[in-house]
Amino acid sequence: MMFGDGAGPLDKLSSEELVALCRKEDRLALTELIKRFVPSVRKRAESFAGGNPDDLMQEGFLALLDAVRNFDPDRGAGFTTFALSCIRNRMINVYKKNSISTDELTEDLELPDDDAVIPENIVAEQAAFEELSSKITAALSKLELSVFRLYVRGMSYEQIAEELGVPEKSVDNAVQRMRRKLKEVL
Predict the structure, then answer these.
(1) Which of 9, 37, 43, 62 has its CA 20 to 30 A from that of 123?
(2) Do 114 and 37 meet the contact criterion of CB atoms below 8 Å apart?
(3) What is the pLDDT of residues 128-143, one digit of tens each?
């Protein structure tokens, strides 16, 4: 698989390189990045005793998208460490919000080394991920996909509204619909 500029296969790129491509609206790079995090998000979601793993997985992927938007390589941490921290924190917040004591959390919430993020069985996850990716694309309207792409690039609601020539409220509504639709798909 080659990405837009023909520089090489996406699976050979670092997470930081994929994030840079995602911010340039490279859908294949975003797909590869999400694919890499599927096992980690699933593991963390399942580590919450009594929590709903599907809901937590959805929150994990939303946290991953936020991590793409907010990652700053100048802060010293690698993207994987930053993203896993964002995912973990979001799941804990959702877990707490659902009135479940954090004492019930398993101890499997430590951040792994960057090398531990991409398991050897990633190929087995690829088919499931590609199906998920196509479901997401099918579920979102043209406006929602446009908003999604700009949101991932780190643009604010105001900037997205200006870019697309729509009211800021339309952007907010599109994001809310995206969240509902992604929850159903995930």
Answers:
(1) 62
(2) no
(3) 556 666 777 788 888 9
